[in-house]
From TrEMBL:
Annotated protein name in UniProt: ChrR-like cupin domain-containing protein
ChrR-like cupin domain segment(s): 4-57
Pfam family, one: Cupin_7
Domain of life: Bacteria
Amino acid sequence: MNENDILIRCDELEWQPTLPGGWIKRLRSCEKTGQWTQLLKLEAGAAVPPYFHLGAGALCR
């Protein structure tokens, strides 16, 4: 690791309810740029409403 790296211990973060059947763990956010990174967990059958990204975005399974 170098001085600019950020270590996040995800297992120590609490899941926060965000939508019906869904939770997030906010990993990073920047007040200056408004950018953020989060983990999303959904129950079977839950869905995220339609949305679009203004910049880069990624979805991992």
